Amino acid sequence: MIRITFLGTAASRPTVGRNVSSIAIQRGGDQLLFDCGEGTQRQMMRFGTGFSLKWIFITHLHADHFLGVTGLLRTMALQGRTEPISLFGPTGSERILRDAVRLGVEREKFPVEIRGVKPGEGLRREGYRIQAFPVDHGTNAVGWSLVEDERLGRFDVELAGRLGIPEGPLFGLLHRGEDVEIDGHIVRAKDLVGKPRSGRRVVYTGDTRPSKMTVEHARGADLLIHEATFGDEEQDRARETFHSTAAEAARVAEECGVRSLILTHLSARYSDDPGILDAQARAIFRRIRIAHDGLSLEVDYDDDPPSEPDS
Q: Which residues lie closer than 8 Å to 97 by C-beta, 6 or more apart?
């Protein structure tokens, strides 16, 4: 399972309805956090994601993307946490992240590892990896992607039954590519197992201008989470501040052929009524959704029946 919960969807500053940037992702038994704006720990309580996470991935060191680290770790300490946690940020962010961890704390109650990473680096876990990629934000910044390993091909259960293979361990051996012997006859795994299938891929840009690097990295992704700070009427402002408009994000999604697009990091002027952003983006790419705080969804597999996100 990959479940995504948007904890904060506002740009730069919180509004009444939206907190600043943070996204929780559950992949199997792993809890991951991407960006950690101020107040993130309260959003985690509010939307029930829990505090069992072990890894936090920061896109860049603008305040609305990392200042919540101090409060989150302090809350964990007060709850009696002893397990270690790791913070990943772009190379060069280590000192400031360490200062944020230590701010207002006499002694750390649990180990906190700080890791600066270059594009292409990240975290490897069983069955998937988290990988940084370059973005265009006028500062030291990265995006992050969750990339699952290839899955085994589909196993033809009906054919296996016709060949007289009993259900049980032999099914598993064949599915993993091992030939087996039944009554003196060799059954070849390749005759029962289809081609390997792609795992899922979720790409989160953080703050960025539309970028060829994003297109290359998100090509064919199941879900692209792209910032959309402004509408078309603020195109010049978006360019000056190294942000994207909703339409620009939609063009990125269209160019790289993602299955679905979710827009986040909305300027306060669109916070209460993001309809104009939806309309401008949907004119270019239909499979779109505007994120709101508390939005929670699961990412299915590419070979599952596709569904268009609701607006």
A: 58, 61, 66, 69, 87, 89, 114
Q: Tell me whether residue 306 is in a domain.
A: no
Residues 233 and 133 in one domain: yes
Q: Does 307 score more than 60 pLDDT?
A: no
Residue 196, C-beta contacts closer than 8 angstroms, at least 6 positions apart: 150, 151, 152, 153
Task: Examine the domain organization and report whether 176 and 77 are in the same domain.
Answer: no
Phi, psi of 76 (to 5 degrees): -60, -40
At residue 108, the pLDDT reads 82
CB 68 within 8 A of CB 22: yes
CA dihedral 37, 145, 290, 70 (to 10 degrees): -10
**Distance from C-alpha of 114 to C-alpha of 125, rounded to nearest angstrom:** 18
Two structure tokens written together for 106: 């006499």
Structural domain harbouring 175: 157-191
Residue 10 lies in a domain: yes
- Give the whole-angstrom CA distance, residue 171 versus residue 72: 46
CATH of the domain at 117: 3.60.15.10
Residue 19: both structure tokens together: 């907190």
47 within domain boundaries? yes
Q: What positions carry a catalytic annotation?
A: 64
Q: What is the pTM of this model?
A: 0.88
- Determine the pLDDT at residue 309: 41
Q: Is residue 97 in a domain? A: yes
Q: How far is CA 228 from CA 150, 194, 261, 297, in A?
A: 31, 40, 11, 19
What average pLDDT does this structure show over 267-285?
97
Q: Residue 179 — φ and ψ, nearest 5°?
A: -70, 150
